[in-house]
Design a protein that fits this description.
Blueprint lengths: L1 E6 L8 E6 L8 E10 L2 H7 L22 E9 L11 E5 L16 E5 L3 E3 L6 H5 L2 H15 L6 E5 L4 H12 L3 E6 L4 H6 L4 E4 L5 H4 L3 E6 L13 E9 L7 H6 L3 E2 L8 H12 L7 E6 L3 H9 L6 E5 L2
Parallel strand pairs: 8-9, 8-11, 9-10, 11-12, 12-13, 14-15
Antiparallel strand pairs: 1-2, 3-4, 3-6, 3-15, 4-5, 5-7
Helix pairs in contact: 3-4
This protein binds NADP nicotinamide-adenine-dinucleotide phosphate.
């Protein structure tokens, strides 16, 4: 048996309950991971609320009960049939089975989970499990947006909205690392954090409207979205790239009239890209922001922290 957080009915943070459940068994191509830390991501609280924030036409099916959590860092304790790349004792991290959700997903809020061997990479040696667990979904989203979705070029002027959050703080670093000029938008308390991560200009959206302060960016990477998404479009040059990370209202007519190209996507598990992120971390080229750390049994408190918003980096559960 093992301890795991289970959700039996959707609702507030209080529906996250610590229970004893059977330890999972790795199937063919999978490994069993002793989870040392698991990070929170927005899909965890969307799922906890029954995806009430997702438009009904694309709302995922979510059988109850389930264990949330897609980001893990831990130690391999057993391997399933056909696994040759991992063995017991290996320290690994990864985004597990995403974009699948519920019990079909990563089940990371637990002492053990199984993971397809190809979703994992060796944990970066220079950081502990809590820090490593903070990387997978947000780091892969940033990596896939910068390299695969946008194909960002050195010298581009890039505006990152929601720059201090999980995705944003990795985007600003990856963009700066490849030679882009990065302007970060966040609330004022994140200014020093973001300047230390390589942001060339900082805009505090609580004092200045970014669309008044910034002009002629080649690319707008918006991790905030929502009904006000279009308000940042004046900062983008005609013919530029709009890259929404979340759903937003971006006024399609304005995009068409100004020749703005829209490039968005859905993050997916990828062990090879996790290895690339580990290399950047170990080389000191990518830093990991940890907002707060809670023990597994305090998952409800961790979700309460997430509900308060204004996250700087990531919220992580430590699994004893
Ligand atoms: N497309 C994909 O595959 C994909 C993958 C991962 C995440 N996402 C989505 O991307 C979004 C961001 O995820 P995340 O993990 O980075 O979330 P997060 O860690 O909660 O970060 C959001 C950040 O936005 C900032 N913010 C809030 N309101 C703002 C505003 N009006 N203007 C500027 N910044 C604002 C917050 O801090 P301050 O307000 O203090 O600055 C916070 O740092 C979520 O909606 C998530 O579902 C999509």
């Amino acid at each position: 048996m093992m301890k795991a957080i289970r959700v039996h009915e959707t609702g507030g943070p209080e529906v996250l309950r610590l229970e004893e459940v059977p330890r999972p068994v790795p199937g063919p191509g999978e490994v069993l991971v002793r989870v040392r830390a698991a990070a929170l991501n927005p899909p965890d609280w969307y799922a906890r609320r029954g995806f009430a924030d997702i438009p009904p036409s694309i709302r995922p099916e979510l059988p109850l009960p389930f264990t949330p959590g897609s980001d893990v860092s831990g130690v391999v304790t057993a391997v399933g049939a056909g696994v040759t790349e991992w063995r017991a004792g290996d320290e690994v991290y990864g985004l597990v089975r995403f974009p699948r959700v519920g019990d079909e997903g990563g089940r990371g809020y637990a002492e053990y989970t199984t993971a397809p061997a190809g979703h994992l990479a060796r944990k970066p040696a220079s950081v502990d499990h809590v820090t490593a667990a903070a990387v997978p979904m947000a780091g892969l989203t940033a990596y896939q947006y910068v390299h695969d979705v946008i194909g960002l070029r050195p010298g581009s002027r890039v505006l990152v909205n929601g720059a201090a959050g999980g995705v944003g703080h990795f985007v600003v670093q990856l963009a700066a690392d490849l030679g882009a000029y990065v302007i970060g938008v966040a609330s004022g308390r994140h200014e020093t954090f973001l300047k230390d991560l390589g942001v060339a200009e900082f805009v505090d959206y609580t004092r200045v409207r970014p669309q008044d302060a910034v002009r002629d960016v080649d690319c707008l990477i918006d991790t905030v979205g929502g009904p006000g998404g279009h308000t940042l479009l004046p900062a983008l040059k005609d013919g530029g790239t709009l890259s929404p990370v979340f759903f937003g209202d971006y006024h399609d007519e304005e995009l068409a009239r100004r020749g703005i190209v829209r490039r968005g996507g859905q993050v997916h598990s990828d062990g090879t890209q996790m290895a690339a992120l580990a290399e950047l971390i170990d080389a000191g080229r990518l830093r990991v922001g940890v907002d707060s750390v809670f023990p597994l049994e305090e998952a409800p408190k961790a979700h309460e922290r997430a509900e308060r918003g204004h996250i700087q980096g990531k919220i992580v559960l430590r699994v004893a």
